[in-house]
Amino acid sequence: MQSPHLRVLLAFSALLVSFSTNAVAVEEPVQLTHGQVSGVELDDGVTVFRGIPFAAPPVGDLRWKAPQPPIPWQGVKAADTFGPACMQRRAQLMSEDCLYLNVWTKAETDQDALPVMVWIHGGGWSSGATAGATYDGFGFADKGVVLVSVNYRMNAFGFMAHPALSAESERGVSGNYGILDHIAALEWVRDNIGGFGGDPDNVTIFGESAGGASIYALLATPLANGLFHRAISESTWITTTNVTHLTRHNGFSDSAEARGQQAIADKLTELGRSRNGDPLATMREMTADDIMSMRFSVSLAEDGWVLPKSPDEIFSEGSHNVVPLLAGVNNGEGLFFVRPERTFSTLEEQKQARLEQWGEHGQGLATFYLAKTEDAIFTTEVDYSTDSLFARPNRQILTAMAKTPAETFMYLFTRNLTDPSLRSPHAMELRYVFQTLPGEATETDHSISQLISDYWVQFATTGNPNGDNLPQWPAYDADTQQHQIIGAEVGQGSGFRRQELDELDRYFDATHAGAQP
């Protein structure tokens, strides 16, 4: 369907005052809701548009507010440079003014109606950006996808709640600004992607790690209903502390407002500044560096609006957004986080630390995550990291979606690019998915990359990864928990770490239940 904003392009010489029913070449300036952009032509007919604003700069009075529409511009904006990364601890170019996205397309006209994929990067909601070479969208565009990658607010800028911020909000809430940025980007895609030859009625969201946690949130929030039509979640990152309640303790951590209030208070004390007067003015007068140096842990906030209930409840009762889902993990996620020289050195040290952490409900976890020999300590720690941070939430969303009519598929990625004899650590699949492998990658690695990217494109196109000349991929269901193994060997498995994940579910449920008022 042709975008109403693009139909005016052929009348550009007449100051855009009439509409045209003819197709418009994507190489020409693209008319957006707030101005026109031109892109950069690459090889093989692919054009990239970098640094397109999808919201107003969230600075000044807009710091810690929902994203606002972009500021209109005159003339044709040259979209040839990535926007700055959002604020984080280490980045060469970063700014609070960071709400920009990028588009890669091979469409010849605005009527091509190609499938659209919207990428949300990972980085613990505290680091990362779209400009990295790993996330180059050329490979996807070359396979007929319109690839969109988006920046979003992170750290305290994207996830801090505070009683004063809630009080000024017409909905009485705060936090979740990074998720609202995702929603604003998806609204931009709905309104503008037709001009790049994309189909606004066939949008797949996909992300990895914290990006997978964003997919988790977008599946749960009613605010995103209808803005996407398929979802891919790679290594969904949900922990005991990165989902909180806005105003009360949830069994694992203080409320989101309490965490934000404490972070601000500690920083003002450190700066020697008074906490009297207008708290909002004081907070917005703080420099970006001051905010970045706060002791603050990111989390989603169950606020009654973005998240009407806890995600656990939403997925359990089936009130989430129902779309075809493809989700999975790497079989050695924890290798990224656990270092042999930094883990426990004795069985007793591991036992004391873990039992203290798990508390009264964690005795059953000892069966699976306390080593029997000192040689096994490292392996059990890797397994605990893999299961608790990624495999458990991955299974949660798969099981919830499998109970609906939507097609549901799980993968297990097993390739280690650095050392094929080891399991695949966290984030290892990314360069395979984006076809951005290093020059020294083997023919086997390139074959894996072609396969997994073909699966992703096929899923984005049809809602099912199965297609001509692709190894058959079984659907996921809660009973068999079948999944596709993707690596040097491609095959099928079932019940990935089922007993361990069952026990983790029991532990999480018991701890949450004990915290309910």
Outline the structure in words.
- The chain has an eleven-stranded mixed beta sheet, with helices on both faces.
- The chain has 15 helices and 16 strands.
- Helix 9 (311-317) crosses helix 12 and helix 12 (377-402) crosses helix 15.
- Mean pLDDT is 93; it is low at 1-21.
- The protein is 31% helix and 15% strand.
- By secondary structure, the protein is an alpha/beta fold.
- The chain folds into two domains: 9-301, Alpha/Beta hydrolase fold, catalytic domain (Rossmann fold), CATH 3.40.50.1820; 338-426 and 458-515, no CATH class.
Q: How would you sum up the major sheet?
A: 11 strands, mixed
Q: CATH superfamily name of the largest domain? A: Alpha/Beta hydrolase fold, catalytic domain
Named CATH architecture of the largest domain: 3-Layer(aba) Sandwich
Radius of gyration: 23 Å
Please state the oligomeric state of the protein chains shown: single chain
- Low-pLDDT runs of 5+ residues are 1-21
Number of beta-strand segments: 16
Strand order of the largest sheet: 3-4-6-8-7-9-10-13-14-15-16
Question: What's the number of structural domains?
Answer: 2
CATH class category name of the largest domain:
Alpha Beta
The rough form would be described as globular
Task: Give me the secondary-structure topology.
Layout (H helix, E strand, L loop, with lengths): L29 E3 L2 E4 L1 E2 L5 E7 L22 E3 L21 E6 L8 E7 L17 H5 L3 E5 L4 H5 L3 H6 L8 H16 L5 E11 L1 H11 L9 E5 L8 E3 L10 H16 L7 H7 L2 H5 L7 E3 L8 H7 L7 E6 L16 H12 L7 H4 L7 H26 L5 E6 L16 H4 L9 H20 L19 E5 L4 E4 L3 H18 L2
Helix pairs in contact: 9-12, 12-15
